[in-house]
Q: What sequence folds into this?
């Protein structure tokens, strides 16, 4: 390694004795070669660590993939150990990467925030299920829009939206499940409760009414419409069902949780929009299971009635998900804070 060190001007060859003890020379040379940490390498490392992918990090940083790979390899040489296990689909962080990220993430995020002298007020890109966005999130964000916050809203299924969040397409995603891995930060937003519903005039629903309540079944909005759980579990699978999807994801979960059995049924109607499911059920097309927030008004008005009110209804936690690095857009923090505050009243 000494061959790479510049020789002082006018200096001639030195003897081994004049050079000093060999072990100390080697250690000093290695330290001098390491030098101060390269912030660009650390920034690139942190992007790969958080996104779990060299390709996604390159896209986020506006660099070529070869540059990202070279910077991470240089950092690995500096530290004398590998930081990532390269895989066919992404990069898995090794223990050395966990240790390095724990040391540098917060300082780098603060530095990035301080360097942004004029924070951008670009639109906040928000994504999530169409029903949640329309019924709860957008009404909650209306005051921010009046104050100048701009929103660009996308809808879709949870898994594709989370993948797009990792790649940088969205700023925040409302997710119906907690994402895995270190690339995303998830905060519980709200619990959605599910209700077994039908229209009050639905003929099979009248036939299922519990004998103790049939005499009062003319009051469709009242408890007279509640049926016996065993009767429901046996009879409903043979009656017309309106579902979000062919594999009945919401209904099957309700059946396991409430009735403790698997559901064997075929949907009479499938439509990939819970608002359309609600409309079809209210029109008498059949029965279904819906989030309580989506049919709250219909239940209050009597347009829909609950077929059962279990003591322990099934719930699903909804998460507010974003990337962990500090965002340059100041409006993103305002959107997150507003949604978390509003969700306490949902």
A:
């Amino acid at each position: 390694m000494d061959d790479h060190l510049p020789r002082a001007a006018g200096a001639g060859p030195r003897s081994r004795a004049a050079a000093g003890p060999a072990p100390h020379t080697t250690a000093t040379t290695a330290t001098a070669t390491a030098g101060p940490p390269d912030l660009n390498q650390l920034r690139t490392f942190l992007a790969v660590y958080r996104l779990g992918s060299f390709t996604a990090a390159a896209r986020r940083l506006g660099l070529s993939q070869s540059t990202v790979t070279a910077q991470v390899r240089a950092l690995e040489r500096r530290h004398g150990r590998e930081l990532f296990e390269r895989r066919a689909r992404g990069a898995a962080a090794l223990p050395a990467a966990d240790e390095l990220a724990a040391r540098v993430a917060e300082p780098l995020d603060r530095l990035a925030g301080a360097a942004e002298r004029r924070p951008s007020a670009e639109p906040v890109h928000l994504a999530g299920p169409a029903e949640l966005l329309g019924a709860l999130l957008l009404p909650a964000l209306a005051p921010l829009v009046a104050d100048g916050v701009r929103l660009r809203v996308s809808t879709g299924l949870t898994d594709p939206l989370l993948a797009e969040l990792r790649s940088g397409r969205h700023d925040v995603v409302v997710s119906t499940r907690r994402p895995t891995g270190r690339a995303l930060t998830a905060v519980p937003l709200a619990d959605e409760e599910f209700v077994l519903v039908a229209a009050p005039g639905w003929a099979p629903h009248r036939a299922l009414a519990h004998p103790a309540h049939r005499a009062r079944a003319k009051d469709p909005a009242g408890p007279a419409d509640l049926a016996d759980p065993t009767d429901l579990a046996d009879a409903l699978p043979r009656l017309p069902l309106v579902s979000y999807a062919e594999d009945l994801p919401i209904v099957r979960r309700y059946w396991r949780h409430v009735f403790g059995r698997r559901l064997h049924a075929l949907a009479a109607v499938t439509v990939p929009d819970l608002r359309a499911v609600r409309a079809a059920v209210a029109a008498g097309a059949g029965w279904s299971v819906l989030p309580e927030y989506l049919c709250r008004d219909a239940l209050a008005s009597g347009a829909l009635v609950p077929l059962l009110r279990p003591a322990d209804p099934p719930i699903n936690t909804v998460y507010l998900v974003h990337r962990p690095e500090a965002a340059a857009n100041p409006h993103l923090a305002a959107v997150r804070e507003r949604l978390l505050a509003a969700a306490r009243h949902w």
DSSP finds 15 helices and eleven strands in the chain.
